[in-house]
Amino acid sequence: METPDESWILFDGMLKPASSPVIPADSRGLMYGDGAFETIRVYRGSTLLLENHLDRLNRGLHALGMDQLDRTRKKTLEGKLYQLLRKNDLLSRDAIIRLQFWRKGGRGYHAVDGHSRYAAVASVCPDYRQYYPVLATVSTRRIPSGCLPSEGKFTNGINYILAAREAADKGADDALMQTVDGAVSETTIANICWIKGTSIFTPSLQCDLLPGITRNIMLDIVNRNSELEMREGIYSVESLYKAEAVVLCNSVREIMAVSKVDGHVFETDHPVVSELQQLYTAFRIEHSKVLPHTS
């Protein structure tokens, strides 16, 4: 029976009460983390570059040998996400959607079934505008892309979980992860950049990082700004320590200043940080699209 405060999820295209059991205990998603996901921010019913998120989801599904979403399935899914937001009374608020796909089939590492199931949950997006995280370097290294492809977001997040726990033990909000060779890679939830003057430094794709959608937006807006210079490369943590400001970027938290890394203090009100945030907001306003309304 539905209660007034009941939250709802989307399961294989059907709206279900969040409290109802829908995923079987022998799900490959539960047993092996055999799947891929996307986290999408919604701005009062509008999304930013949703097509890019679904394309990256497809790259993850392809890497796992699972069926991808064609154009028709993408359009149907967009309408279902609108229904999910409406059912949870989130169309007039900023929200977060977690979209999770996993493989059908039984036990064993030799997966032969390419068919998938999916679920989506929606929640209110917190206000991160006055949040300045603290980072700590950790001994847990980013899995090399040759071992685990970096082009998708995979359900098995043990690498990130171990790094985040290690950072929490140091009193930090997130882990600054490095490659096995000791180069700066990313954090457990975001890509990272740092600022010296009007130059913005960020690890290149050679550093085993997830090529974030917000990272790509930032590369684009900086490269179109004659007063700023983006430098992609392979950098040591010591290079980051010498920065004036450090920022994280992802789709949910957008562009966010970091206050400390391993005890080194950085400017959270740096003018280049403010400029990046303003440029990103302008890009978002221009490119956001309303989710298709469905009955």
Automatic annotation (TrEMBL):
Chemical reaction(s) catalysed: L-isoleucine + 2-oxoglutarate = (S)-3-methyl-2-oxopentanoate + L-glutamate; L-leucine + 2-oxoglutarate = 4-methyl-2-oxopentanoate + L-glutamate; L-valine + 2-oxoglutarate = 3-methyl-2-oxobutanoate + L-glutamate
Keyword Transferase included in the entry's annotation: yes
Assigned keywords, A-Z: Aminotransferase, Pyridoxal phosphate, Transferase
Transferase is among the record's keywords: yes
Pathway(s) it belongs to: Amino-acid biosynthesis; L-valine biosynthesis; L-valine from pyruvate: step 4/4; Amino-acid biosynthesis; L-isoleucine biosynthesis; L-isoleucine from 2-oxobutanoate: step 4/4; Amino-acid biosynthesis; L-leucine biosynthesis; L-leucine from 3-methyl-2-oxobutanoate: step 4/4
Protein family according to the UniProt entry: Belongs to the class-IV pyridoxal-phosphate-dependent aminotransferase family.
Protein name listed in UniProt: branched-chain-amino-acid transaminase
